[in-house]
Structure prediction request, 176 residues.
Amino acid sequence: MSKEKKDVLYGLYDDEEILLKAVDQANAGHLDIMDVFTPFPVHGLDPKLGLAESRLHIAGFVYGAIGTLTAFLFMTWVFTRDWPIIFGGKPYWSVPAFIPITFEVTVLFAAIGMVVSFYTVCGMAPGITNPTLDDRITDDKFCIAFDVTSADDAAKNQLKGFFSQSGASEVNTKTI
Prediction:
């Protein structure tokens, strides 16, 4: 199934402070921002765009809890049922001896689970290519993008006026 093509009008900014002011101006003018692209995380941008807090930390807790249970239950089974050997004078079920391995497996499960979840949610699985508006966005430019697929010329001119008023260093259109 092929995706529908979009016409995107975007403006490039040289500084994150100018970008934040431009996002405020767009919100004040009730402009519908499609997306904002930055080369690094910009503090305070998420609330201005109305984005909710990520739930990745909840998934990390669940993956860590699964890792804890897996390690602890596996070692309990091995040392009490499958291979019960008394070594070093310890009893079969020595919980303090289980703690280091349990911690390591907890961290391992949480890390791998969060990476897989992040890549899945963001659509960055192997073999998937996502279009980029401009290669400089990943280097040193900041971008505000508007979907102008169904916009008329007056709306496009209004958005171009917004970019010139808000301090955009460059304005381009691209079909993605």
About this structure: Residues 56-82 form the longest helix (27 residues). Helices lie at 16-28, 45-49, 56-82, 95-121, 153-166. The chain has two domains: 7-51+129-175, 56-121.
